[in-house]
Amino acid sequence: MEEIVSKPIDEITWREIEPGGVITEAGNARSYHTGSWRSLRPHYLEEKCIRCWRCYIMCPDAAISPDFTNNRMVWNYDYCKGCGICAYECPVDAIEVREEGE
Ligand code: SF4
Ligand code: SF4
User: Which CATH class is domain 33-99?
Assistant: First the structure.
């Protein structure tokens, strides 16, 4: 492993910055509960939902899935990081993004 650069921040070049986002093992996404990062939370407005599945397809964390038994979408908040993409992509505004804890 290379030595960690230790010099004033304004003297560090981009080539010396430590790489981030390194995946050390395949298939480890389940180990990281990205929901703990969340400051915003999507709220499902079921009565407006037309079951187009767009939110399911667009969620980068696979935190939304269709519940066939109850004919609705369900969120897994352990992995939803609150990015708001689902709300942005929903064609009928059936998802509202609110402050966490609201
Ligand atoms: S807010 Fe982002 S991470 Fe959470 S369910 Fe929507 S698209 Fe997925
Ligand atoms: S994108 Fe909106 S309308 Fe489509 S399934 Fe998701 S919540 Fe329902």
Answer: alpha beta
